[in-house]
Design a protein that fits this description.
mainly alpha, 206 residues, 54% helix, DNA polymerase, domain 1, 4 strands, 9 helices, 3 domains, two-stranded parallel ribbon
């Protein structure tokens, strides 16, 4: 009888390990609600607080952008001296347009009237109408082309002359000598009155 009881209560090592695993699983199931409550309280951000933080961050960014793009009433930005950061203070002018304005200004040598902004790629009449009262032009900042010294390569970036017109100006100078005044440019057949009027503020014979 005693031997039978001993055999009944005895278990193998494999069975014992299985029993331990079962007990551990039961304990984990029973403790799960308390564990979940602990981590939710201490380690998870309140979703409502997170939403408020995101809204506040968006509001700050929006106000910062508006502040950067707006200039005070009566304040004007001088086109020939402004850098890209300054130009972005104009209404509707972002980084891309600011870079285009500066690049076109460099090709020209400077603006002599603000209407030339309409020649900047992508800047339309509606956008120009918004900023025309916010800009000014100082023509003293224009870098002129010394027509008696400039090479063909030196003229290539200038937007108001075609390839043929550039070549004609250089060839005429080589054949007839230096230009003494802007009136001499009229003798170059390929330079029409409209072109001459456009390039006049940028050409120097001295």
């Amino acid at each position: 009888m005693r031997s039978q009881l001993k055999n009944y209560f005895s278990v193998s090592k494999k069975e014992w390990n299985g029993l331990v695993v079962l007990v551990v699983l039961i304990l984990l199931v029973l403790a799960a609600p308390y564990l979940f409550k602990f981590f939710r309280k201490d380690n998870i951000v309140d979703p409502h607080a997170l939403d408020k933080a995101v809204l506040l961050l968006n509001l700050v960014n929006k106000q910062s952008a508006i502040k950067q793009q707006k200039i005070g009433p009566g304040v004007k930005i001088e086109l020939n001296s402004a850098d890209t950061s300054k130009l972005k203070e104009l209404v509707g002018i972002g980084s891309a347009f600011a870079r285009r304005i500066v690049n076109y200004r460099q090709r020209l040598g400077g603006f002599y009237r603000k209407e030339q902004l309409l020649e900047v790629f992508g800047l339309d009449t509606a956008q120009y109408a918004e900023i025309q009262q916010q800009v000014s032009v100082d023509t003293l900042g224009i870098k002129k082309i010394h027509i008696n010294k400039v090479s063909f390569e030196g003229l290539q970036r200038f937007p108001y002359l075609s390839y043929k017109q550039m070549n004609a100006l250089i060839r005429f100078r080589e054949q007839h000598g230096e230009y003494t005044s802007l009136a001499d440019l009229r003798a170059v057949a390929i330079i029409d009155k409209i072109t001459l009027q456009k390039i006049k503020p940028y050409i120097s014979c001295q």
